[in-house]
């Protein structure tokens, strides 16, 4: 099917199932679509973060979730005693994505030999092993155990910002790139010497995720995660680069035809005058997902303001859609749509019509589906553009690369 792309998480088998249900009755077809969309929205992703106490696990967990250390629900940082329990921290806007703060290996309650059993390794999609300096014997042993259990692990070397600033102070002929390369090489060599083949090490600062290797870690995970988990991961990622924002947009875009399909079917319910009202409710729901996914809701913007030191009002002021930092209402959507009517162009309407016919939507219903399709594309563009502006504003002060 020509509309499939890498972010389309509904498989061709599932599309066939939708068609079969649709043949029985439109209601059954729609129920199936709804089921798939819901399943996708709630895909669980469990990320294990492990490493010695003080290596920066909690700080990374908070940064990934866009939460500041002092916020409610933050993983406690800078605590001297070792984590004695396995704690999980849901993403504020995507609670099915959880980061787990695991105790260090080899602490009295979690001896190395029983570690994976004790932390309940089965539930994790992958492991991130963090070290603030070099990776030690326990880290290596753990990585090998994780591999034996059929799971994946990634090494993350934390606190790179302080290495860089220390080197800068110490060396007259300081070379940033060389310093980073040396640290990476050292870590890789250390791991290789201890028996890890081809180790991958990512240099990260949790204070500045947009710098250093976080984007490489992101790309690697995106490649290595199974398709249905990949979107969940992407939606939960902080907007720390133009590329991430673009990919989030593409992932949301790939789902629009299903929302539109759903709305065209809703019009099939013979209640006079109801179809446009129902569509609007659907649009409000989906756009709210976009705003939350791009972290443009009030709570996320406030947290971003705290961590970036850019006043909240400045972040809000760069947004042009009026969709961020507010509750999405049918009235607000109606207002924005008056702009769409002016634009006129039918965005890929032909393509989506073909898709509807393929699925088995009656011709008479296609028009309402096509308009939902156009509307959601239009609003997604606005939200993604605002996300980009907010990102640029937030890193303006701190964009040295
Ligand atoms: P945990 O015990 O592994 O959870 O470690 P924490 O997250 O509590 O971090 C220990 C200390 O390292 C805290 O004082 C953090 O502020 C600091 N820290 C963590 N990550 C970074 C980082 O990326 N850069 C710098 N400079 N300090 C960090």
UniProtKB/TrEMBL annotation:
Pfam families: IIGP. InterPro entries: G_IRG_dom (IPR030385), Immunity-related_GTPase-like (IPR007743), IRG (IPR051515), P-loop_NTPase (IPR027417). One of its GO terms (cellular component) is membrane. Keywords: GTP-binding, Hydrolase, Nucleotide-binding. Gene3D superfamilies: P-loop containing nucleotide triphosphate hydrolases. The keyword GTP-binding applies. One of its GO terms (molecular function) is hydrolase activity. Residues 43-224 form the IRG-type G domain. Belongs to the TRAFAC class dynamin-like GTPase superfamily. IRG family. This is Interferon-inducible GTPase 5-like. The lineage of its organism: Eukaryota, Metazoa, Chordata, Craniata, Vertebrata. The gene is LOC115406536.
